[in-house]
Each structure stands twice: as structure tokens, then as C-alpha cells.
User: Fold these one by one.
Assistant:
Number 1:
Amino acid sequence: MPRLKIIPKHEDRNGWWESLPPPAPANILNGERRVHTVIVGAGVCGLAVAHQLGRLRPDVEIALLEAERAGFGASGRNAGFLLNVHSHGPPKRTDILRRNIRLWESGLSDLRRMVREFKIDCGWHEIGRIYGSAGPDGEKHIEQIAATLEQLGLSRSWMSRDEMKERIGTEFYRRGLYTSGNALVNPAALMRGLARHLPMNVRLYEQTPVVGFEPGSHAYVVETEAGRMISERLVLAAGVYLRQFGIAPGRYVPMATYASMTNPLADDALALLGTGMPFGLLASSEYGATIRLTNDNRLFVRNLFNFNPNSPTPAPRVCEIGKLHRKGMLNRWPGLEDVGFAHSWGGTMAFTWNNGAVFGEFAPGLYAVLTNDVSPMTRGAAAGRLLADFMEGNDSELLRLQLAFPGACRLPPRPFLDIGIAIRRGLLHASARKEF
Ligand SMILES: Cc1cc2nc3c(=O)[nH]c(=O)nc-3n(C[C@H](O)[C@H](O)[C@H](O)COP(=O)(O)OP(=O)(O)OC[C@H]3O[C@@H](n4cnc5c(N)ncnc54)[C@H](O)[C@@H]3O)c2cc1C
């Protein structure tokens, strides 16, 4: 049986996860089992497939296999922006934007519905978001974002430097652009909640890494560390690890990005953050820092991208990057000198060249899904649900939109890819340095 070369194993501590109570012990697969469908990966894509497939096929047994814990991957370690719209660069064609928005919004409304139905306590907060601009690169991009929102007829309002200072307590930004329609969450809590409320016929196995798989006669055999699963259908929702299964190799780039978070701030520190009310701020530049003040008063900073073919990033390197986050925090709020980060961590996400899709049936009974580059959480929720619809032959206009999405195109081979990424990263890094 072909063996997978890389299995996910994070050494660092994701602050969102650490802020939650300890989870129930993992249900680990031991021995051999036969089920109708196996899904690999309990991130936003795999959980969305599992929820929809479980609902559509209550008559069959479905297994969801996760190498670590549900929410340990990128879906539980991100910045927690569930976006309804997002676009960098000059405004795109209106028809393309409208197609994207249908998919983003459907993913967002699926997540909203499940959070309400299952009463998932993930700090769901629809307070909109602020795009911040600190330097010339930010200024260029914030104008483009404003133009895109205007093109789509979406609400937006400018915030002057003084208004930014009043709202979030810093003069770091030249100006901001406020818009609404998104949600902010604790992503680890959201993923855990979705995993806890799977349909009855879906069984979750955690700490159960798939180490090899092969097609058999009318069945797939999936080998895990302590057992094996035999199923008619296999769904791969393994995020950046998809290529380990031979899906879309050379069509996406795994890029690591990093985050740090404080413990809940004391009142005197909170008083330095303007109104002290929760907020979510995205840099208008593609490469700048994301900042949040959470519902429970933790300050979150995300910054930096690295090409990461052998993810995850080792803990000592993550620790170094935490120092950059601290610098970013103090550049904005020098008064927080005494505040340290409780946790720093990394996560890896996939980027394609053309914002292309990886979605569909790749061999008889073998399905795969990878979320898109832009607004991946809401796109992943939509794509996962639509993959289950596709598997069950449930046609819809949304499914046709998803299927019409261009496939992720082939990237240059390594080492040319490495060189290309290093140059692009260097250029973005240099132009956006004021936005860190
Ligand atoms: C720091 C950071 C901030 C981000 N901020 C945002 C944001 O604010 N908004 C947004 O929309 N996106 C954001 N993203 C991107 C987004 O989180 C990801 O693109 C998205 O979560 C990918 O979802 P996924 O389901 O495809 O992959 P994942 O969440 O990575 O899930 C894949 C799962 O498959 C499992 N798996 C892989 N291989 C195996 C195996 N062999 N056996 C068993 N299980 C396996 C993994 O353990 C993992 O849990 C951010 C990412 C990072 C890292």
C-alpha cells in the first residue's frame, strides 16, 4: 500500500484551542471497520461534507478520520473572519464577483444556521470588519477595496485617523474602511462544535492519521496508525495535505502564516484600545497584519507568510515569529509594553495561481475538495456541502456555479516555484512593510 510521506502533527499551541476547556478524550480507530463512506480531514471542508452527507444519507454509515483533533488544522487556528466578500487588487468583473459572493454567502449562512441550531458557543459576532491602511501600499489597496464594495453596492464607511484612534486606540493607521456582513468567531470553538454535532450516522475518529490508502475492487482501503477502514467511497478533505494523497500535486502552494494571542487584557490595558469593544481589522494590503480584539478581551495578531512545503512550522521558529507579532502590537499600542502573548502558533493554507478550485470526483468513488484562496472558511463551508450534493446527484444553481469554477492550474516545477514565490513574497513584503 502506498504510504503518505507527511502526516499533520502540530507542536505549537493554538491560542484559540487553549482558551477552551479540555476536550473529551478522542475516539481513536482501532482494528478494521467497513463503512459506506470515509471522509479524511475534520477541517471546515471535511466537516461541511460530513454534515451534509450525513443529512442526505441517513441510511449509511459514514466515518470522518482526523489526524489530530477536529479544529487542530488551519480551520481552527485562523483569524476567525467568516467573510461574505473579500477581494484584493483592482475591482474584478462584476459577474465573477457576484458568483463568488453567492458561494461565500452560502457558506456563511450554512455556518450561521449550524451555530444557531446546535447552540455552538464560538463567540459568533456580526460586528463587521475594518480594513486598515498604514502606508502607501495600504492606501492603494484600501481605495481598490472601496471601489469593489461600491461596484457591488455594499455598505461601507470611511474612518479618519482620529476616528480609528477613537475606536481602536491607535494612530498607526492613516484611515480605515468599515464594512459589514461578515462574522467573527473563535475558530477552534466553531470546529469543535461542528464536530460535536455531527449527524447520528457520522462517526468521528480523532488522533487517527491516515498513513496509506489504495483502491481495491469496488472499495477503498484506508490504513490508519492503529486500524483500517474499507469503504465504497472516499472523500479527501485534507487541506494542504491533499497532495500527499496524489490529488492536485503541483497545483497549489502550501503557505504558512502565524498568529499570536494574549490572555484576556486587564482593564488598564483594555482602556488603551479606544472604546475597548471587540473589533476585527484586516490590512487592506494583501500582506499586512490582521488584528482582533475578541469578545473575551484577548488581543490577536496574525502576520507573515512563508512557503511551507513541509508543514507544520517547527515550534522554535514559531516562537521567533511571535517576537515580530509583539513588535507589531507595540507599534500600534506602545502602552501595552507589559502585555505579553500567551500563545504563538502557525497554520498552513493553500494558494493556487488562479484562485482555482480542486473539487469533484477524481477516480470512481474518490472525491476531493480544497477551499479557495479568497475567504477560505466560508468558501470551504460551501464547497464541502456542495461536494456532498454532487456525490448524491443533488443539482442546484450553486452547485453549477461551483462546478463552473476554473480548476487550479498547474504551477511551475520546483525549484522554479521556490524562486518565483521568494521573489513575489519579497516584493509583497517590501511594499507592505508599513502594514506590519
Ligand atoms: C493563521 C491563519 C489565519 C487565517 N485566517 C483566516 C480567516 O480569518 N478567514 C478565512 O476564511 N481563512 C483564514 N485562513 C485560512 C483558512 O483557515 C484555511 O484556508 C481553511 O481553514 C482550510 O480548510 P480545510 O478544511 O481545507 O483544511 P484544514 O482546516 O487544514 O483541515 C484539513 C484537516 O485534514 C487533516 N488531515 C490531513 N492529512 C490527514 C491524514 N493523513 N489523516 C487524517 N487527517 C488528515 C488535518 O489534520 C486537518 O485537520 C487562515 C489560515 C491561517 C493559518
Note: The mean pLDDT is 95.
Number 2:
Amino acid sequence: MLMKKIIDLLHDVQNLTISENTSCKQLTTFKVGGYCTAVFPSTVDAFISCIEILKKNDAKFIVIGNGSNILFDDDGYDGIVVVTTELKQLVVSENRISAECGVPLHTLCTAASGASLAGLQFAYGIPGTVGGAVFMNAGAYDGEIKDCIVDVTCFDPETSKLIKLTKEECDFSYRHSAFEDNGLIIVGADFELSYGDKNEIKREMSEIIGKRRDKQPLNYPSAGSAFKRYPGRYTAKMIDEAGLKGYSVGGAQISEKHAGFIINRKNATCRDIKELVDTVKSVIKDKEGIDIECEIRFIK
Ligand SMILES: Cc1cc2nc3c(=O)[nH]c(=O)nc-3n(C[C@H](O)[C@H](O)[C@H](O)COP(=O)(O)OP(=O)(O)OC[C@H]3O[C@@H](n4cnc5c(N)ncnc54)[C@H](O)[C@@H]3O)c2cc1C
């Protein structure tokens, strides 16, 4: 009943597409999960109005980007999934780029290289959005999103105010930001880059994409590296050395190409993936005596 009332209220918001009975498979790169009601704001005003309605009515909700680091439950999600992928405005001004939260990293990197701006090459090929990358402090090849962030514009659902957090206030560390705990919604981010040689920037980007294609099982659905790096150790190497490459639970498998990836080999369920994660954690605990941490965020 409450859900119906909320959906009715959301119908009054302009520039907001509502999609009931959406498969979570379509909202994530893992292609796993039951059904949910998803909403797609295409302007910041619609995004904020939507969050305000959800907050005011005590509705359960989650904001997601491209769904490339999350896993929905097999029972789906019984709240509202706010998907930011239509919030795609991007402005390049001298050596700065302002991007809305739904801008794909691919677009951000291409805009930077097109303007001869260096600093984001590392992010080329990470299949996330600006919002997801800020939330996760996404990183690769010795770079992290925090390295080029100036500030992050957020909406505070408690006060209904738009605020800017400086890079320091975002409290970035390895695959962590303050957004994991502060309840703020990321609306956009400002990046500061350095001027560089356009051809050299593009060459680095294609080299990085090449490495990804060589090393990662990109022909199967996944959420990227399933486990965080353990200080001083390569988690994928530990998993490989434990003989777990190719190990499966149901349709989920430890990739034979890259032991750090769990792939959806054939109709994997969330349950399969969770069981596989738990097995890997316990094997590594027994063998190495350390607790490795899962990087994928389970949404229930
Ligand atoms: C093939 C593959 C390769 C990958 N390689 C890498 C890699 O090299 N490095 C790396 O770091 N990651 C990698 N990833 C993981 C993933 O792409 C990144 O973590 C990415 O930054 C997630 O962005 P997203 O938009 O998909 O976020 P989502 O998965 O949609 O969300 C991630 C988290 O951020 C929150 N969130 C998203 N948007 C907002 C917002 N606007 N406001 C508040 N919270 C928000 C969500 O609630 C969720 O908790 C890879 C994934 C795949 C599938």
C-alpha cells in the first residue's frame, strides 16, 4: 500500500521515468537478482525531488549508478532503486571537469583526453559512473579517483540541502569514502587535471584497455574484482595458489582467466555468488591465516 502511494507521488515528478517490475539483472553488470521498482531521473531537480519524496515517506531506497560493483538479492529489492545513469551532464572548463553523478567513467576519460587533460587514464575501462566511482574511490593501475577530485556536490536528505564536500571531507582511502557512512547522495563531482599531450594520453588509455582485455574475463558478467587487496598481498594470487581458479558454486565461478574475479558463468544466483565468496574467504583464512574482504556490495 505504502509502495503504491510512493509510486503515485513519484509520478508527479517531471523528468523521472518509473519502471515497475524491472529485473535487477538489467541494472547490474553481474546480471543477477530478482525484481524491483526502478526510477531514472534525467535532471538534478528530478533526482532531488525523488529523494525528498522517498525520505519524507520513510521509503526504503538505494541510489545506484551502473550497478558494476553491486549484487541484488534473488528476491529482488523491496524498496525503490534510484538509477542515476540519465544524469549525464559534463562541462570541461580549462583544466577542470564538472560531471554529474551518472556520467560513465568512459565518457569522463574520453572528454579529458579530448581536451588534452591528463590524470584520468587509469579509470578508462572501469565500467562505473562518476557517483559510483566517488563512493567506492575506484582505482586501477596506480591511480584512484581521489587523485583528481577537487570537491563533490551532494544532497543531504536529512536537511534537504545541496552541499559541497572538499576532497578531504570525502575521507577517501583504498576503496572507501565517507559516503559509505554519511548518508549523503552524490550529485556530481569536480575534477582537476593537468595539461598533457593528447596523443600520449590516448596511447596510455588504449594500453590500459589492452591490459584489461588481456587479463580480465570481460566476456562474462561480473562485478570486477570480488575481493579487496590485502595489505602487501595480491588477493588474486592467493586465490590462485589455493587452487580455486575455476571453482564453481551453481552458475558462479572463480574465473580461470583472473582468480580475483567471480563470474556469472551460467545463470548464477546471488546465493551461488555469496556461497562462493564465503568459500574463498574460509579457504584463504585456513591457508594464509588472514581475513580477506569482499569488494562487492550486497543489496537486500
Ligand atoms: C569488468 C569490471 C572491471 C572493474 N574494474 C575495476 C577497477 O579496475 N577498479 C575499481 O575500483 N573498480 C572496478 N570495477 C568495479 C566498479 O566498476 C567500480 O567500483 C565503479 O566505480 C562502480 O560504479 P557504479 O556506477 O557501477 O556503482 P554501483 O555499482 O552502481 O554502486 C556502487 C556503490 O555506490 C553507491 N552509489 C552509486 N552512485 C551513487 C550516488 N550518486 N550517490 C550515492 N551513492 C551512490 C551505490 O549505492 C553502491 O553502494 C570493475 C567492475 C567490472 C564489472
Note: Residues 195 and 205 are 15 Å apart (CA to CA).
